[in-house]
Amino acid sequence: MSTKRDLILELVPILSLRPTQITVGMHEVEEKRKRWREFGRKKRAKVLGNHMIPVVKGAGKTFYVVDHHHLALALHDEGVKEVLITLVADLSMLDKKSFWVVMDNHRWVHPYDEKGERQHFSKIPERVSKLRDDPYRSVAGQLRRAGGYAKDTTPFSEFLWADFLRRRIAEKTIKRDFSKAMVQALELAKSHDAIYLPGWCGPAED
């Protein structure tokens, strides 16, 4: 099994890429779309060159996205057809069952739905365009950018924060007043209830 990250200097159709998660935060996708529309041609080319999609190669030369799902969906929704990819690992020699076992053990897959419940790998959509909305993932992403917690290398760390917020903030609050939900999230992020989460900053000690 190859785990060397190689740059593949070819454009790959976004819709040929297979997701490794069920949900994204659609609010975050919309924010990425807005920023994309503000870029000129040169800036867009630079963004595409600097933000390659990391993938794992599966059977039949299928590429599975292991990061940047939000970016891939935002680009697709903005009419971008192709992106550059970078190879994280080649698992094309494995059968389907073994493939998902290895992916799971490397924490390259996150088969949890918008309620935070684990599903079978077969429930993961086949196209980034079929990713479903988890509003708590949007709050978790915005919370990090607002300084609620630090960027962390823990795989799917923002989903861990989303699950923490899911049990403490009403979903209707997020949908009706995202700013109000963010105020609640920032307060919760400082609490000791969140101490176990990756990137927790906590309150300053006296």
Question: What is the secondary structure topology, with strand pairs?
Answer:
Blueprint: E1 6-13, E2 23-24, H1 26-38, H2 41-50, E3 53-58, E4 62-65, H3 69-77, E5 82-90, H4 96-105, E6 132-133, H5 135-145, H6 157-166, H7 171-176, H8 178-189
Parallel strand pairs: 2-6, 3-5
Antiparallel strand pairs: 1-5, 3-4
Describe this structure in words.
This protein has two domains: about 5-135, Conserved hypothetical protein from pyrococcus furiosus pfu- 392566-001, ParB domain (Alpha-Beta Complex), CATH 3.90.1530.10; about 135-195, Helicase, Ruva Protein, domain 3 (Orthogonal Bundle), CATH 1.10.8. By secondary structure, the chain is α/β, with parallel strands linked by helices. It contains eight helices and six strands. About 30% of the residues are buried. Helix 5 (about 135-145) crosses helix 8. It has helices at about 25-40, 40-50, 70-75, 95-105, 135-145, 155-165, 170-175, 180-190; strands at about 5-15, 25, 55-60, 60-65, 80-90, 130-135.
